[in-house]
Amino acid sequence: MKRFKYKLLIAYDGTPYAGYQTQTNADTIQDQIEKALQKLAKGKFVRIHAASRTDAGVHAKGQVAHFEFPFNITPEGLFKGLNTLLPDAIVIQDVERVKAEFHSRYDVVGKKYEYRVLNSSLKSPFKRYFTTHHPYSKNINKAQEALKYLEGTYDFSSFSASNTDVVDKVRTIYEASVKEEDDEWVFTFIGDGFLYNMIRIIVGTIIEVAEGKRTPESIKEIIEAKNRNKAGKTFPPTGLCLVEIYYNKESMDKEIHK
After folding, report:
1. Number of other CB atoms surrounding residue 1 within 10 Å
2. Which residue of the set 27, 55, 155, 183 is catalytic?
3. Mean pLDDT of each 10-residue bin along the chain, 258 residues long
4. What are phi and psi of 116, to 5 degrees?
5. pLDDT of residue 1
6. Are 131 and 201 in contact (CB under 8 A)?
7. How far is the C-alpha of 16 from the C-alpha of 102, rounded, in Å?
8. What are phi and psi of 222, to 5 degrees?
9. DSSP state letters, 62-113
10. Strand 170-181 versus strand 240-246 pairing type
11. Which domains does the chain have, with CATH numbers?
12. CA 60 to CA 109: how far, in whole Å?
């Protein structure tokens, strides 16, 4: 039977789900999309493959997934059908038909994440799922200086969760920055890939630098140590969002240098 391959661009609020990837006895984003596709496929199961497996509570503006569908249906038809069937926390932003060779995960050349820290003295009921509240005195100049030590290709074992089974922990970070937006700090990370909890550990460590508990230069020492115990605490998932997946190095380079 001939099958047709499609690519999805997905946005979601990760709060109600146990992460992106399907799990036993837990509701996930993958489960919800596959259930919707199964209805559109007249009961036939359709497996989707995503570019990134975000954790519980982590959000996405630009998740990408692909799947093979048993029927020849227009991208517009899939777009309308999926958004009709999916819960409000998950929105398909775009559907396109792709070549058989395309793979949403293996063709990735880079990923962009943001992490938002709310600095206001009071918590915000409107931002509680999309920022991490941290109302303590911080120096953004120190944070910016420290982040530059992370740019480059390194073994990031010190910034990886200790319970990961990943052996190769060498990654390249092309951009690590932070800026102020009203009462928030917005961290931006662009890299060829990220380890389990890597960004959340980096943010927790950089915040300690910003508070004067560490020096900016200590980041270099933490990287060289290749020891998780040398880095700071893991910040919560709420402030983390997958912003974009890059499949073209030119588009990624343009983003970094804009």
Report:
1. 5
2. 55
3. 88 96 93 97 95 95 96 95 98 96 96 97 95 95 98 96 86 97 97 95 97 97 96 96 94 85
4. -110, 125
5. 59
6. no
7. 30
8. -65, -45
9. EEEEEEEESS---HHHHHHHHHHHS-TTEEEEEEEE--TT--TTTT--EEEE
10. unpaired
11. 4-97 (3.30.70.580), 110-257 (3.30.70.660)
12. 18
- What's at 237, amino acid-wise? P
Q: How far apart, in whole angstroms, are the C-alpha atoms of residue 232 and residue 234?
A: 7
CB distance 61 to 130 below 8 Å: no
Query: Considering Cα of 207, then 212, then 217, then 222, what sign does the dihedral take?
Result: negative
Alpha-carbon gap, residue 160 to 149, rounded angstroms: 17
Report the first-to-last Cα separation within the chain, whole angstroms: 46
**Residue 144, amino acid:** Q
Annotation says 55 is catalytic: yes
Pair of tokens at residue 217 = 């230069």
SS3 content of the chain, % helix, strand, coil (to 5): 30, 30, 45
195, 203, 145, 150: which is closest to 169 by C-alpha? Answer: 195
- Full-prediction pTM beyond 0.70? yes
Q: Which residues pair with 177 in a beta bridge?
A: 188
What does the pLDDT read at residue 193? Answer: 94
